[in-house]
């Protein structure tokens, strides 16, 4: 799955704003049918997506967050996507964001239900339940990406236990790294203080997330700045590999770095992640 620094959620009932804003290379637009849509308005939201027209916006693709297939609305969301041939507003749905995933078998069900489409969307699974945290590696094995849903996870707990949340985030990021998937951090509910968003984004990047969700336009620039990978970083990884392979001793120590197999393996992993995904580069 292609890596983006920022995943911007737009409620399906407000896609007129998306049509006006157009595309940004470093931002994936996520059309949301789940949490941002009231229970009584789900059918209307699906109607908005079915009638959408994104021609002229420059959007190459979108993502779609569905309701859980354990609910009638989730089944109706999938039926809508199948009826539309895997496209919304004339652009392909690159991936569906699947909520309330509990185990790898859940991912297989989504993939089977979408397999009849000419170009089936990828599956980005939410780790947002206690079961999902425990089964993170099983879920990652069948997914194309992982998203962290902190608010839903906390809702299952008596209190927001910081040690468990750190454990959950670590399991998600390590599972994503094991299977070489994008790891998308939960959105921030801070809408106005850019420094708070920056601190949260930097903490998520240190944990191992490759991008972060946004729910307000004011969050986008800080998130993109934090998670974008510049050419100098990629050149550094490539140089590490080339210098190691050209060194007859297979090991070298200088003032600036150590050339050894673990560092070369890390460079290969990072290049593979961003190259195969054609991730935007600043």
Q: Low-confidence parts lasting 5 or more residues at pLDDT below 50?
A: 276-282
The top level CATH class name of the largest domain:
Alpha Beta
User: How would a textbook summarize the main sheet?
Assistant: 8 strands, parallel, barrel
Strand content: 15-25%
Shape: globular
Count of runs of 4 or more consecutive helical residues: 12
Give the beta-strand count.
11
Structural class: alpha/beta
Corresponding CATH superfamily of the largest domain: Phosphoenolpyruvate-binding domains
The helix content, as a percent range, equals 40-55%
What's the arrangement of strands in the largest beta sheet?
1-2-3-5-6-7-8-9
* Distance from first to last alpha carbon: 19 Å
Q: How many structural units, i.e. domains?
A: 2
Kindly provide the radius of gyration, computed on alpha-carbon positions and rounded to a whole number of angstroms. Answer: 20 Å
Order of helices and strands: EHEHEHEEHEHHEHHEHEHHEEH
On the 0 to 100 scale, the average pLDDT is: 90
Kindly identify the CATH topology of the largest domain.
TIM Barrel
Which architecture of the largest domain per CATH?
Alpha-Beta Barrel
Which properties best describe this structure?
282 residues; TIM Barrel; globular; two-stranded antiparallel sheet; 12 helices; alpha/beta; 2 domains; 11 strands; eight-stranded parallel barrel; single chain
């Amino acid at each position: 799955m292609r890596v983006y620094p920022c995943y911007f959620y737009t409620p399906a009932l407000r896609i007129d704003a998306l049509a006006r804003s157009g595309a940004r290379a470093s931002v994936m637009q996520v059309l949301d049918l789940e949490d941002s849509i009231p229970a009584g308005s789900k059918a209307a939201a699906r109607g908005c997506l079915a009638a959408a027209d994104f021609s002229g916006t420059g959007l190459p693709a979108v993502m779609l967050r569905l309701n859980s297939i354990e609910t009638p609305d989730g089944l109706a969301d999938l039926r809508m996507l199948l009826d539309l041939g895997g496209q919304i507003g004339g652009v392909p749905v690159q991936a569906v964001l699947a909520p309330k995933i509990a185990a790898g078998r859940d991912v297989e069900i989504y993939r089977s239900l979408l397999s009849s489409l000419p170009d089936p969307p990828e599956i980005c699974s939410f780790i947002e339940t206690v079961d999902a945290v425990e089964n993170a590696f099983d879920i990652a094995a069948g997914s194309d990406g992982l998203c962290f849903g902190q608010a839903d996870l906390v809702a299952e707990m008596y209190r927001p236990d910081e040690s468990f949340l750190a454990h959950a985030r670590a399991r998600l990021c390590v599972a994503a790294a094991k299977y070489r998937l994008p790891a998308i951090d939960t959105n921030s509910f801070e809408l106005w203080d850019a420094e708070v968003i920056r601190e949260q984004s930097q903490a998520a990047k240190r944990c191992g997330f490759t991008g972060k969700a946004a729910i307000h336009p004011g969050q986008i620039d800080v998130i993109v700045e934090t998670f974008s990978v510049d050419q100098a970083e990629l050149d550094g990884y490539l140089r590490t590999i080339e210098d190691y392979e050209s060194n007859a001793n297979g090991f070298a120590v200088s003032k600036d770095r150590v050339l050894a197999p673990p560092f070369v393996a890390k460079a290969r992993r990072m290049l593979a992640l961003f190259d195969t995904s054609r991730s935007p580069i600043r």
